[in-house]
């Protein structure tokens, strides 16, 4: 029974954390126009 209560509390805390982060929203700013490197440069 204790494990069930602990799991329920943990799940509620995780849900509240996700809800709080969602409510705050993304930080202001712009994305970089430069593309990211997706491959490793070849060595000569």
TrEMBL record:
InterPro entries, A to Z: SPW_0924-like
UniProt name for this protein: SPW_0924 family protein
